[in-house]
């Protein structure tokens, strides 16, 4: 087990290096290859009508005139050893892991990421619990009552969940439950748990349900398909023949086998969401990592885009690792080797 | 039995969740806690556009929390490092420049009045030296007195440092301070020769050349004082030394700004601001459509950006007379137009340019902006809220503004292209409204035989790499470029100089995309800026406007307007003409 984890951690680090090089290339190398000049890039980060001197100043300050290898080296060194930046009257230290300084709002990226993480964690974990419980339950019930009205109704709702985009369901739920009925607070009301747990909960109910609606629909369909397949297996017939109760057959034999692929997807989905639920956070104005990255992309804030990409990649790699370990727990046929 | 139990549990859970949420629906934090103080509050008798001509819901009642929301974030909250129009309005809550605009709707609001200064600037005979006297006893929020050296330092840091790049650099352009490297490189402020402070209350600006509109320059937030000891450069935006009625309580970049009352602000020294709410909260990076919903529900009081409601809310408001009565439809400082390059054939021929002027269906090019609510059809460079604006129309294109095909054909014949010609229209591809304008123009021109191809470029590099680079424009034969311009100060010079002065044609970042270098225009600009008599000067701006329009290279579409919503819980609301949005320093909230 330990050797397995060590091997996976080494692979994960290599993966992160590759991701960072690829992201860096996308945002720095490709524009250069297409003829973008350092001055052209810098002009995005200065005010309207900036003088050539001001643009040149920004080029120097952001090191855009350096060769790309040197720029990447500076970025990588910052992660390991930190960096120093001029904020005008003095230099400030950006301690490791320093993902650089935002080009747009002059904030160090790493503390910004950490600042945004709790909102994303709150959203992702709450929604994940809802969609896992709801999706799997609906899927099981649907499979066990195949062809009935309940099954058809559940699958129709699931189809709607998969089909409707979050920005639509989100805005409709806000209009109905927040601005018409006044049951839940409106957008932009996210409050950190540490400040006000009740408000934190209230503000997240609609985003949780909106996000979970999409995923629960997917999980319900996956679970239903898996259960239908498993329930037809020989060992289920054997279990029934042994005289086991139907509840035991379903929960201990069928569901356990069905859960293995679901767990894989669940791990990946949660890992992805920890890198930012872009649409949900944008719709409900939740200051999480997803909102941060979409704003950074719109504003060409390359250090932030790079930082979030690495951050998200880290969570996906981590989630994969956890899933692989959990495989062995859920399904005894799987052994880590 | 089990099913009943499960259903009962589920129902109980749902009820608890909803009940808990409903109970706490008015909790505080950064959220929305004033449901019920919005449009369901006291009935207002105000009508559509009342805020444009008078103060709506006048009240001196104090208290409450004024809530703003904004779909973006500022370049900086540092008054010396911002170029956002709303921030030149908003920053006055905590930063007082030497001069500011009269707090009044209509034309009166375009007049400058003293703020930190005792009076307007006193110009020397040659117009190159401007002197201002500071009011005595004005304090920062920490109780220390504002000194002339703080104003000098503020301008030095905002205009001469490599770090503060977001604001304009007019002082660097006009002050006689050759060789000065800024206060971060050169710690001795005495080396900054562009400004002298003979005593603690006198500031003398030394200019390279006469500049009769210098008062407008010191009305921008960069003249708000900054104590050198408190300057933290790029981080100063988080703890600005306040001279206004409010001070910063906290600022989380990209998330939330909270202001509280500044106890050291003395209303006796300030004729233009009020201090009504106890607290002002701003949420940044909010969903634009959701901001509108919150405005309509009375959960926020104003959209900080001041650019009006989104299309969905606009449709809802227009369809409901009661909601429409809670709106104002002011001009923004922007003119939306196209420029024809005088260096790209066949637009090097004035008659070919005239053909485009006459052929354009201005109703069609108005539509993408939202029709009449989005802007009035234009015929000049300057907008109606620019000081010096004169109404005229040199190229009337039909009684219904839908184009005059006969005159267009005449012009085509005169330019030697009776069957039309081919050209390209350049547009910022990521700006849907501008793309729709380009398509409407393309359709108009097609009717008279001018075949235009639309070429889209990214807005981020529009000025630096594409339409703002004459060599690129020539090489790619960009005959027509869709653009927009808003003045930094509401005078003819503020509007015109950057876009029509032939000496401002730059290799990159060029806004005179017509490449019009008319000696008569340049001379008029020089004459105007040296004319001290305001009436005479404003007349000259009108002449410049006419001269440029005579070239037929400037094709106006609309004088942009916006639709602002004012919840009934908002008091003291009026549109300030200098900013084209509500005066944020006057707003109060009903309790």
TrEMBL record, chain A:
Residue intervals passing through the bilayer: 9-30, 119-141, 153-179, 199-220, 262-284, 304-330
Annotated keywords: Cell membrane, Membrane, Transmembrane, Transmembrane helix, Transport
InterPro entries: BPD_transp_1_N (IPR045621), MetI-like (IPR000515), MetI-like_sf (IPR035906)
GO cellular component: plasma membrane
Cellular localization per UniProt: Cell membrane
ABC transmembrane type-1 domain segment(s): 117-327
Chief place where the protein resides: membrane
Membrane topology: Multi-pass membrane protein
An annotated Gene Ontology molecular function: dipeptide transmembrane transporter activity
Family annotation (PROSITE patterns): ABC_TM1 (PS50928)
Family per record: Belongs to the binding-protein-dependent transport system permease family.
UniProt-recorded name of the protein: ABC transporter permease
Source organism (scientific name): Planobispora takensis
Upper classification of the organism: Bacteria, Bacillati, Actinomycetota, Actinomycetes, Streptosporangiales
UniProtKB/TrEMBL annotation, chain B:
Signal keyword on record: yes
Pfam families cross-referenced by the UniProt entry: SBP_bac_5
UniProt GO cellular component terms: ATP-binding cassette (ABC) transporter complex; periplasmic space
InterPro entries named among the record's database cross-references: Peptide/Ni-bd, SBP_5, SBP_5_dom
UniProt GO MF annotations: peptide transmembrane transporter activity
GO process annotations (BP): peptide transport
PROSITE patterns from the UniProt entry: PROKAR_LIPOPROTEIN
Signal peptide span: 1-21
Keywords: Signal
Ranges where the Solute-binding protein family domain occurs: 111-501
PANTHER family: ABC TRANSPORTER SUBSTRATE-BINDING PROTEIN, PERIPLASMIC BINDING COMPONENT OF ABC TRANSPORTER
Record's protein name: Peptide ABC transporter substrate-binding protein
The species this protein was found in: Planobispora takensis
């Amino acid at each position: 087990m330990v050797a397995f984890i060590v091997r996976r951690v080494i692979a994960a680090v290599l993966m992160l290096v590759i991701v960072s090089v690829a992201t860096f290339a996308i945002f720095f190398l490709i524009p250069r290859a297409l003829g973008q000049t350092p001055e052209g890039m810098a002009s995005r980060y200065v005010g309207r009508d900036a003088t050539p001197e001001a643009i040149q100043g920004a080029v120097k300050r952001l090191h855009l005139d350096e060769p790309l290898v040197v720029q990447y080296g500076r970025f990588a060194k910052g992660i390991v050893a930190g960096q120093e930046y001029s904020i005008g009257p003095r230099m400030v230290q950006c301690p490791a892991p320093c993902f650089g300084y935002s080009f747009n709002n002059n904030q160090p990226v790493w503390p910004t990421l950490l600042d945004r993480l709790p909102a994303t964690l709150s959203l992702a974990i709450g929604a994940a619990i809802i969609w896992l419980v709801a999706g799997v339950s609906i899927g099981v019930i649907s499979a066990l009552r195949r062809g009935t009205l309940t099954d058809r109704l559940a699958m129709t709702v699931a189809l709607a969940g998969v089909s409707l985009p979050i920005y639509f369901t989100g805005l409709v739920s806000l209009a109905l439950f927040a601005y018409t009925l006044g049951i839940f607070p409106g957008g932009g009301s996210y409050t950190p748990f540490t400040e006000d747990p009740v408000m934190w909960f209230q503000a997240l109910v609609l985003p949780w349900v909106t996000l979970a609606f999409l995923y629960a629909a997917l999980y319900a369909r996956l679970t239903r398909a898996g259960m239908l397949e498993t329930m037809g297996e020989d060992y289920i017939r054997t279990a029934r023949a042994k005289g086991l109760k139907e509840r035991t057959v379903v929960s201990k034999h069928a569901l356990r086998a069905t859960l293995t692929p679901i767990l894989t997807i669940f791990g990946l989905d949660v890992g992805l969401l920890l890198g930012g639920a872009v649409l949900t956070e944008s719709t409900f104005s939740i200051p999480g990592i997803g909102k941060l990255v979409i704003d950074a992309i719109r504003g060409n804030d390359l250090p932030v885009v790079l930082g979030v990409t690495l951050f998200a990649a880290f969570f996906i790699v981590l989630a994969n690792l956890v899933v692989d370990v959990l495989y062995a727990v859920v399904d005894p046929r799987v052994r880590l080797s | 039995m089990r099913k009943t139990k499960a259903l009962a549990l589920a129902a109980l859970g749902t009820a608890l969740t909803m009940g808990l949420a409903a109970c706490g629906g008015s909790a505080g934090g950064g959220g929305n806690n004033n449901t019920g103080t919005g449009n369901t509050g006291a009935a207002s008798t105000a009508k559509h556009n009342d805020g444009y001509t008078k103060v709506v819901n006048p009240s001196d009642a104090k208290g409450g929390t004024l809530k703003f929301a904004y779909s973006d974030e500022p370049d900086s909250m540092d008054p010396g490092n911002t170029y956002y129009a709303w921030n030149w309005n908003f920053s006055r809550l905590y930063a007082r420049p030497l001069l500011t605009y009269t707090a009044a709707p209509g034309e009166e609001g375009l007049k400058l009045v003293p703020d930190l200064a005792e009076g307007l600037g006193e110009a020397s005979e040659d117009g190159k030296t401007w002197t201002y006297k500071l009011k005595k006893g004005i304090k920062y929020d920490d109780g220390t007195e504002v000194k002339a050296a703080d104003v000098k330092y503020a301008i030095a840091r905002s205009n001469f440092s490599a770090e503060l790049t977001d604001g304009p650099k007019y002082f660097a352009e006009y002050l006689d301070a050759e060789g000065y490297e800024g206060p971060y490189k050169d710690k001795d402020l005495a080396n900054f020769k562009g400004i002298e402070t003979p005593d603690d209350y006198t500031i003398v600006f030394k200019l390279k050349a006469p500049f009769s509109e210098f008062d407008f320059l010191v009305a921008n937030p960069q003249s708000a004082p900054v104590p050198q000891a408190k300057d933290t450069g790029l981080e100063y935006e988080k703890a600005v030394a306040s001279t206004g009625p409010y001070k910063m309580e906290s600022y989380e970049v990209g998330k939330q700004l909270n202001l509280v009352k500044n106890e050291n602000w003395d209303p006796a020294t300030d004729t233009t601001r009020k201090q009504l709410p106890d607290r002002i909260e701003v949420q940044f990076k909010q969903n634009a459509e959701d901001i509108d919903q919150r405005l309509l529900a009375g959960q926020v009081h104003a959209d900080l950006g001041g650019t009006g409601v989104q299309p969905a809310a606009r449709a809802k408001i227009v369809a409901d007379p009661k909601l429409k009565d809670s709106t104002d439809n002011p001009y923004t400082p922007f003119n939306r137009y196209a420029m024809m390059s005088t260096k790209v054939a066949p637009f090097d021929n004035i008659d070919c340019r005239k053909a485009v002027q006459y052929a354009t269906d201005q109703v069609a090019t108005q539509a993408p902006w939202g029709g009449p609510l989005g802007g009035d059809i234009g015929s000049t460079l300057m907008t109606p809220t620019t000081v010096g604006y004169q109404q005229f129309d040199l190229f009337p294109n039909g009684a219904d503004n839908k184009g005059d095909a006969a005159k267009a054909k005449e012009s085509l014949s005169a330019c030697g292209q009776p069957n039309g010609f081919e050209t390209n229209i350049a547009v910022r591809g990521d700006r849907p409204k501008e793309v729709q304008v380009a398509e409407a123009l393309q359709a108009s021109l097609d009717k008279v035989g001018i075949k235009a191809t639309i070429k889209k470029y990214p807005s981020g590099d529009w000025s630096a790499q594409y339409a703002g680079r004459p060599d690129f424009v020539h090489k790619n034969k960009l005959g027509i470029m869709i653009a927009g311009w808003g003045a930094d100060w509401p005078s003819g010079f503020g509007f015109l100089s950057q876009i029509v002065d032939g000496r401002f044609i730059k290799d990159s970042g060029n806004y005179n995309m017509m490449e019009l270098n008319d000696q008569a225009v340049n001379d008029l600009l020089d004459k105007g800026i040296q004319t001290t008599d305001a009436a005479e000067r404003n007349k000259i701006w009108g002449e410049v406007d006419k001269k440029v329009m005579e070239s037929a290279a400037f094709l106006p579409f609309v004088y942009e307007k916006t639709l602002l919503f004012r919840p009934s819980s908002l008091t003291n609301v009026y549109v300030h003409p200098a900013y084209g949005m509500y005066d944020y320093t006057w707003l109060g909230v009903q309790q």
